[in-house]
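Dear colleagues,

As part of the handover before I leave the project, I'm documenting each prediction I ran so the next person doesn't have to rerun anything. This entry is a single chain, and its sequence is reproduced below.
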Amino acid sequence: MTPAETRPIGLHFENIDKRYGALYALRRVSLEIAAGECVALVGRNGSGKTTLLRIAAQLVRPSGGKLTFSPTPSAASPEAKNAGFVAHATMVYDELTAQENLLLFARLLEIKEPAKRVELLLREVGLFERGDSLVRTFSRGMRQRIAIARALLHAPAVLLLDEPGTGLDPQGVSWLAETLRRLREARATIVMSLHGESEISALATRAVRLDAGAVVADTHTGVSLRSILTFANA
């Protein structure tokens, strides 16, 4: 399954709150993200970017408000339930090989011909020759490539990335940018947290800035994309 074979999926955050005790990580965040948009989330550390992505990935429940997908997922359209998520931590198993890591998740996702899909992705991320190596022997950038490959296993219609360029060398950043460009052209919905302007941020069709858990700027309200991305470098 490729993104072109899935129905495009949009996300709707409605008055999302997330509290940890007395601390608000998110405050009444409302965002309508259309199917096929490529959205950059920017903001200082602690602004709420990661929490918003984790809620979108359905790994964290909001304290208030609700998240919905459009169109509503059904048994025939489970893509939103299985959004691809790349966390800031790679969350790969050190004592498994690269191939074993991907095969494990491919089988959990009930992917047809998992070995074939894993081989394809290992080749795409440039790690086919290291497929039988334990992940604990990998550099941070190599682990990041495996994490990205894992998120792409089921060709998700929604891809969520938390600082996806972390640990990648310039060649890796270029590879990721080209991968995201192809997904965007296939109308996958991409939401990613970023720090400033880069080869990856250049792909964004929209930028949203968070501060203290609230949306304070959005290109949909007339603020320029460049001004929001430039702020993140400040």
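DSSP finds six helices and nine strands in the chain. The chain has a mean pLDDT of 89.

All the best with the project,
I.
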